Amino acid sequence: MKSTLKPLTAALLTAVAVTACNSNNDNDSPVTPTLSSVEFSGMPAPSTDQERTSAYTTASVTYVYSDGSKKTSALSFKPLYSSLDVISGVTGGQVYDINGNVLLDDNGNPFIANTPDANSLLKVEGASATGKGGNPLYLVTHFEYVSIDSSVPPKDMYGKAPMVMKLSTIDQNQSSGELSVTALKNINMAGIHGLWIPCAGSLSPWNTHLGSEEYEPDARCLETNSCASLYGKDSYMAALTSMNAYFGDTITARPYNYGLLPEVTVKADGSTTVVAHRVAGRTSRELTQVMPDSRTGYQGDDGTYTVMTMFVADKASDLSSGTLYAAKWEQTSDQNGGAANLTWIKLGSATDAELDQMVNQDHIQFSDIFESSDKAATGFVQIVTGHEKAKTEWLRLKPGMEKAAAFLETRRYAAYLGATTEFEKMEGVTANAADRKVYIAITRMSNGMEKAKDATVPDDIQLPKNLSGAVYELSTAKGVKDSAGNLINSDYAAVSIKALVVGEDIAKDTVGNTSNVDKIANPDNIKFSEKMRTLFIGEDSSTSHINNFLWAFNVDTGKLSRILSVPAGAESTGLQAVENLNGFTYIMSNYQHPGDFSSNIDPALKERLKPLVNPYKGEVGYIGGIPSL
Prior knowledge:
Blueprint: E1 35-41, H1 49-52, E2 60-65, E3 70-74, E4 76-82, E5 86-87, E6 90-91, E7 116-122, E8 135-143, E9 164-172, E10 179-186, E11 202-203, E12 209-210, H2 219-224, H3 227-231, H4 241-247, E13 261-266, E14 272-277, E15 285-290, E16 296-301, E17 304-306, E18 309-315, E19 318-333, E20 339-351, H5 352-360, H6 366-369, E21 370-373, E22 381-385, E23 391-397, H7 402-408, H8 410-416, E24 423-424, E25 426-432, E26 437-442, E27 470-477, E28 493-502, E29 523-529, E30 534-539, E31 549-554, E32 560-565, E33 571-581, E34 584-592, H9 603-609, E35 619-624
Antiparallel strand pairs: 1-2, 2-3, 4-35, 5-6, 7-8, 8-9, 9-10, 11-12, 12-13, 13-14, 15-16, 16-18, 17-24, 18-19, 19-20, 20-28, 21-23, 22-23, 25-26, 26-27, 27-28, 29-30, 30-31, 31-32, 33-34
């Protein structure tokens, strides 16, 4: 997700190596104790300049067994490679045009995207040996954006270069589970018209990488050439600058080709195929989390005045056709982050193929879907939506354009039909299969999530302002009907939502924190581990915490433990809970934009920290030091 400070970035992976215990059911043999619970013991917040500019951990993890015995191990961070390293001829953060040429900035130097975000560590049956003697694995990693160029001082490049996913070949030591990178390559995005600002992601139940494209281009203002006046002439929204750079022209890129759901399949030989799904809707997608049925997907929509969507595929493990719904928040409490019942408004059903026909053969535009006005007009519906900023519009749907509106203008059409579009920076999404829960991160409760001052706008969500944010828990059920009384063809339709882990605003302390450092602030990436019963929470607090943290929250005990600190100004991203790869478990976690200091930071501290941070170099690594069980 984009930092409000338009950051620099870097990378880091975390992996916790844990093997599962085996129980012996032979009556003639002693029974081996089984793993009962996992508990993380946290670390203090950083206090020295060295700690504030490092990715490090002093936390530990304890395993409790069925016989009451315990094993405690210290965690440690081990780097794998940096965004500037060259591996098998490929530089970690380099970006490319459609022909595979490295893109250069105005100074003739390669752009470096030091923004690795989503990770999918996966095992592909039949993969070739790595040459190092270990088990072969693959790692798909998003690079979200180029933050700066090589100018002095550097220029802000957010959203002005096409983006990439990289595929790492990983060697997994067969005895220790230790990971190392043996090869790196670019994943070709030509088949999906290039890649637009990929943020978080997830591994599908069928072992493919599900990506994202957030802050989708605004088709209305691009058609009328008014984006510069709406967003600012230097904004990435002012034109399709990044995709024009990708194609090398100003005519090929179309706004409706971005804001989609890329799916990457990795084959045994390391080759990849990429498709971009349209039936999940077009939003500022943070990620899509597919439930255990391999059909139902929940999606975060990052920005201000955004929408919660649920996609139900027609067939398991196939996201090429299905039905899209948008949520209506019916508030039941405004206490401790708030709670609500949820109802679902059906937006429409479609296939990728028919939507692609609209976009790339019929060349549909916004004005083909809606009549629009910037003031009240008879027959028009007032909506408030956004992502970069809230916009009030008056729209009237053109006859027969329901399907196009549902899937190409998802947020606008959801608001048009009465769904709630007041969510503020709705980010990471993850699932707890055993408890049939969904968790969603809300970076902050403000703007649309506060009680509206304007009585003419929708006001479903009415919460006290909390700039530290919260992680919410959604309960799901079978047999749920939509707002029209029709059965939703899913066993995982959410019926209620409540805040689970809530941050706390404070008066600015001596170093510049405006959120309690012993609680979460601005949660972003989240992932749940079923076996550990632990929700991992990564922060993106551009102003609230001087250093961002990775937290472990035990959903049974409610214990919150800080297990990683990333360099000052960096964002914790890229989480993935991988519970068993050849007997080992990995908790992946990246960090972005070190040195993108909070505007609240103490000026003297900032001057001390600046020379200790390399904003162009991000590390990829993992947390080790945990023995096999």
